Amino acid sequence: MTLLEIPSVTEKVTISGFTEVNQDKYRNKPFLEENEFLVNYGMGIVQFNPIHEGKTFVFSYYGRGLILIPSSRVYAMIDRNPDVVVTLQDYIDQIEARINENKVIISQIEILTAEANIAIHNSILATDNANQAAEKAENATVLALDAYNTTKLVFKEPVPTLQNIYTTYPNPSVGWTVQTYKDGKRYRYDGSHWIEIDIFGSNLQVVNEYKDGLMSIAEHLKLKSFPIELKERVIAFSLPDAIQGIIDNFIVFPFKGEIKELSGYCATSGEMVTTLSLERTRDLKNWSEITDRRLQFEANQNFDDKKVTFRNINVEKGDIFRINLTQQGLGINNLTITLKIVT
């Protein structure tokens, strides 16, 4: 499991019913026992025995917040997963190299413009001396203007394809430059036609619905299907000495979201079936049950049967939840109920 924040080494991570194993002890063990776990305090990763795959646990720890990672340790997976091809620092170096190339070109253009201006100035001064000097000055002016028109780039908003350039920019001016993000090509209007001049940043193409880039098309489409700020939040009801009926343990949820899962486990299983429902209110007076098929523990089982269903999964900011133990199996004890809500 990966924790939401990097945990504090001094405060440690605790999980009810489990014992933490340090790194030195783990090096001498072939595997983790069922009640043991190992914490990587640098990455915020908690490792368990494979028998716990798919289970949900409640962690207690102090978070240290954000960890800054050098760009040389951020890797991009280009062709195959998980093969590492380049690092973020490699891309930064390539961008800096391209910027330096552009600076050289701009410097050459500035030199050319300066030389053209000098030629124009000299031609104007020579006009009074001879018609030939005036003709040379006129030629120099034309050359300078041609140089300007063939080198200036006026960047416009990108469009999907070349055909979209004609509809988006029906009346272009000389030097207008538009990139098509479907294939990364750049086109410049020379006064008569849109001319392809290069494929800008072909090695840094941003992924879209048509072309792989820094991630694959499939990964891009999957990422777009997620909300911008998708988060999974957990409400935990700890019921060590629960008695059949309404549990006076209310929890207010401060976000809007959707219920994803209601699950539970007990330290001591009951000899008969145990059922409970999840209820909701906004005024602490009018409560409504939102479980259609209630959470159920079969006899002699420590975990629920995973068959609970809901009448309404929508959660509004300020909703208050409680547990109603509708049927208590003989001997069941130390219940923990977790409600997962995606916001």
Q: Please, what is the average pLDDT? A: 85
* Major sheet size, sense and barrel closure: 6 strands, antiparallel
Gyration radius (Cα, Å) is: 34 Å
How many strands appear in the DSSP assignment? 23
The helix/strand class is: alpha+beta
Task: State the order of secondary-structure elements, H for helix, E for strand.
Answer: EEHEEEEEHHEHEEEHEEEEEEEEEEEE
Total helical elements:
5
Q: Helix proportion of residues, in percent? A: 10-25%
Unreliable spans are none
Descriptive notes:
By secondary structure, this protein is α+β, with helices and mostly antiparallel strands. It is 23% helix and 29% strand. It has helices at 23-27, 88-126, 131-151, 162-168, 217-224, and strands spanning 14-15, 19-20, 36-40, 45-48, 59-60, 75-76, 86-87, 154-155, 176-180, 185-189, 194-199, 232-239, 245-246, 251-252, 257-268, 274-281, 288-289, 291-293, 295-297, 309-310, 314-315, 320-327, 333-342. Strands 13, 14, 16, 17, 19 and 22 form a 6-stranded antiparallel β-sheet that branches. It has a 4-stranded mixed β-sheet with strand order 8-9-10-11, with no helix packed on it. Strands 12-23-15-21 form a 4-stranded antiparallel β-sheet, with no helix packed on it. Helix 2 packs antiparallel against helix 3. The two termini are 20 Å apart. The mean pLDDT is 85.
